[in-house]
């Protein structure tokens, strides 16, 4: 038990250390709690983090608080350059998780001789924060990807080109924020190298990079997600392998395929082909009216694909289509940047 009348200088210094680190831990937890609440809207994590903060508050004994003014803190007000460099929510999450973990370790060590219960609490919460940090980072990355999917109506799919990186940078400069990369000929080594190059390019322009079919290359290149066809790996297995931080899109063209994709938790759907297209010669076009029926009430992002051109987008928009996936028009354009700008303008206009 603690003796509140202790005036020994060594004990006061220890109490002061515990007091300061209880404040640090609770402050850091509040940062994580507020991001979980306002940034992610995740009540489960808000409750968990709030509970840890309340437990530490309950164990922030008066004797610790009273030690603050007994010994002058000559290092008060010191800062570090890294504090200025924190610009993204992910950096703030990591830095404050580290702050909490470090503070709890100090509490654990210094409270062990005289307050075993607090030492045990600090240890238990510290290990929980290691997991919570990873979970919050995963949720933040997913939230960012979902936001891009929701806010952007043009989805560009690559075709094999000698100057593919140049074409992609042009359309990214134009404002395209979703790129799906399809592999054609070449070795897996070449595919991975190309995927990493495109990933880095997309990252520079704050855009999603999605790999078609190849889960292994999606993982190896740290792509933002993967797109699966009906004959590819099933969604549940893909989710187990790729995790919850990355998005998964599904190609579908009938009620059963759409229903299965929704049930298994896909993030978006590509529906088509709308019209005849050279990239899917063996697939019969679904047509506008059938797609309107298939997508009625669909509450996740879906992109019309197959034969989409700038000259038919207006008509599709009048029929309630909002999001479009393009391949050949941009990949084969003599001026992909200008072409992308014109399409984006068309998509931004209300009918």
Written account of the structure:
- With 351 residues, the chain is of the alpha/beta class.
- It folds into two domains: 135 residues, Up-down Bundle (Ferritin); 197 residues, TIM Barrel.
- The protein is 57% helix and 10% strand.
- The protein has 15 helices and eight strands.
- It has an eight-stranded parallel beta barrel with strand order 1-2-3-4-5-6-7-8, surrounded by five helices.
- Helix 7 packs parallel to helix 15.
- It is elongated.
Unreliable stretches (pLDDT < 50, length at least 5) are none
Number of strands: 8
Biggest β-sheet description = 8 strands, parallel, barrel
Shape-level CATH architecture of the largest domain: Alpha-Beta Barrel
**Form type:** elongated
The CATH homologous superfamily name of the largest domain equals Aldolase class I
Structural category:
alpha/beta
The top level CATH class name of the largest domain:
Alpha Beta
The structural domain count equals 2
What is the first-to-last residue Cα distance? 73 Å
The helix content, as a percent range, equals 55-70%
Strand percentage lies at 5-15%
Number of helices: 15
Helix and strand sequence: HHHHHHEHEHEHEHEHEHEHEHH
Q: Main sheet: which strands, in order across?
A: 1-2-3-4-5-6-7-8
How is the CATH topology of the largest domain named?
A: TIM Barrel
> Gyration radius, to the nearest Å?
27 Å
In round numbers, the mean pLDDT is: 91
